[in-house]
Amino acid sequence: MSRILLAEDEEILRMLISDTLEDDGYELDEAQDGEEALKKMIAEEYDLILLDYMMPVYTGLEVIERVRSVPERRDVKILMLSAKSQMADQQAALQAGADYFMAKPFSPIQLSEKVGEILRK
Known about the structure:
Layout lengths: L2 E5 L3 H13 L3 E5 L2 H10 L4 E5 L7 H9 L8 E6 L4 H10 L3 E4 L4 H13 L1
Parallel strand pairs: 1-2, 1-3, 3-4, 4-5
Helix pairs in contact: 1-5, 2-3
């Protein structure tokens, strides 16, 4: 079973994403801000990180840069989720080390398909 960390500060969205991915059979762990996400990403092994761009304490970009500096976690797949959907924002996320970018709003089906696609690679 694939392990996913969901780092999202909006509780309603976090619940929706969790329910969707748990129904798909994934094991989910959650973080509600960048600091909690960073601690979990360093302490635990995940197959995929779903990371919100704008979070309290550390932004998604700051979390990525710090995690990518930890040799044991450099290869974890990261899908950045963001309402900031301009090309410059997408490029900033990818340059920081995100592997994928998904603009909000998205449907649970779109997210489920994207997660499945990433984890099958």
